[in-house]
Amino acid sequence: MSLSFDPKALAELAALLNETGLSEIELEEGDRKVRLARTLAPVNVPVAAPVAHVPAAAPASAAAPAAADPAKHPGTVKSPMVGVAYLSAEPGAPPYVSVGQTVEAGATLLLIEAMKTFNQIKAPRAGTVKQILITSGVPVEFDEPLLIIE
């Protein structure tokens, strides 16, 4: 069986890897599957001196880590795609939303740029923005928590 892929589409996916800083992209359509990956150069990071361990007064409960995990919060808005997230329409413009702001269902929360297209990410429901989990101009992965609305 011979599979052929559009070279232009593959070049666009490779460009997306470079633009977003991702290490790989995998697409599947029916019985066709393509995976593009790039090897990232190793980065030498200085390591801080070890810090003495101070034991906790009491063991943490199992519920505490789950509550701190934004992915498990019922009001988490997750990324529907891979791309670069932007909190405002253009550099220097005010952000679409800020912590403490009340939003209506369908209001634009941020943009995700994927393959030179800006996609509006809308509020799935009305509520108050409790936390913004990303920084503008940073790549995001599919299903990555973006912000929390309560």
From TrEMBL:
Name any Gene Ontology BP term: fatty acid biosynthetic process
Any one annotated GO CC term: acetyl-CoA carboxylase complex
Q: Which UniProt keywords apply?
A: Biotin, Fatty acid biosynthesis, Fatty acid metabolism, Lipid biosynthesis, Lipid metabolism
Lipoyl-binding domain residues are 74-150
Which spans are transmembrane here?
Answer: none
One Pfam family from the record: Biotin_lipoyl
Q: Is Amino-acid biosynthesis there in the keyword field?
A: no
Query: Which classification does the entry list for the species?
Result: Bacteria, Pseudomonadati, Pseudomonadota, Alphaproteobacteria, Acetobacterales
Instruction: State the source organism's domain of life.
Output: Bacteria
Q: Is the keyword Lipid biosynthesis in the record?
A: yes
What GO molecular function annotations does the UniProt record carry, in alphabetical order?
A: acetyl-CoA carboxylase activity
What pathway does the annotation place this protein in?
Lipid metabolism; fatty acid biosynthesis
Please describe what this protein does: This protein is a component of the acetyl coenzyme A carboxylase complex; first, biotin carboxylase catalyzes the carboxylation of the carrier protein and then the transcarboxylase transfers the carboxyl group to form malonyl-CoA.
Q: What is this protein called?
A: Biotin carboxyl carrier protein of acetyl-CoA carboxylase
